[in-house]
Amino acid sequence: MVLFSANSSPSCMELANRIAERLGVELGKTEVYQDSNGETRIQIQESVRGKDVYIIQTISPDVNRCLMELCVMAYGCVTACARSVCGVLPYLPYSKQCKMRKRGSIVCKLIASLMCRAGLTHLITVDLHQKEIQGFFNIPVDNLRASPFLLQYIQEEIPDYRNAVIVAKSPASARRAQSFAERLRLGIAVIHGEAQDAESDLVDGRHSPPTVKIPLLIPKEKPPITVVGDVGGRIAIIVDDIIDDVDSFVAAAQTLKKHGAYKIFVMATHGILSSDAPKLIEESAIDKVVVTNTIPHEHQKLQCIKIQTVDISLILSEAIRRIYNGESMSYLFRHIGLED
Q: What are the DSSP calls for 152-177, one per residue?
């Protein structure tokens, strides 16, 4: 087994070092750098001939550079006659762009094809934005779950969690909230009436009336924001898979406060926390934001003391060990249903 980190920045190498320590191996020697013209260069400084290579890549704010680093390193291992090349990508970038929007494109499919063409023979990731993304790849994909670590945090770090209610900030995330609530034996609440991004046909030239009368959908009207479920005098725990633009989470926290929630937690697997998210969280009614270390966010934690991190290197290292030894992965997916 050879373990590489495809990113040389200290914050991105932290997770790779944790995984290597748990596996009892040292990170392979590589040199990753950018030329003065912006091109990515990779130098693999040890033999990988006939070996199983695992490339760990955590995504920094420069997403496109990280993708190129992974693909260039994977291709370098293939040309150096590695037996197999497994990508360990805790957060899959562009995963939100997995559906067709107007004249856009399904960029996630393009990224999947790029990784496969670069030479990856296996992919390990965590909590894909949509589970169907696995179908974009023509290689095996292990979509691990971070929810056991977040559930453990709730049970161990929130003393009065029995007085909590799991909240979905929109009906779209109700299934995830239901999964958490059933495992913790807690109630569930759903915030309904959140503003949706409506698509208009009038602005892009597609509004051409047909020659025959065709029944059309009735336009949606934004209902007033309501909370379905009782949160009065309770701890509200909002769960989701990604925290990036925090405006919707801040608005949800304000709504929950108005309905009587006395403490508000936000929990998610991937803490992108881009732009001025730390500042907005610090000034909001949110008490704590709990995310895993699939994405490095040390800089954001310096700006906001409410952000806390849960380490998931244990499940990633165990997945690598099982794949390397040819063991079954089913134990890592025990008690996971379709809604998880």
A: HHHHHH-TTGGGEEEEESSGGGHHHH
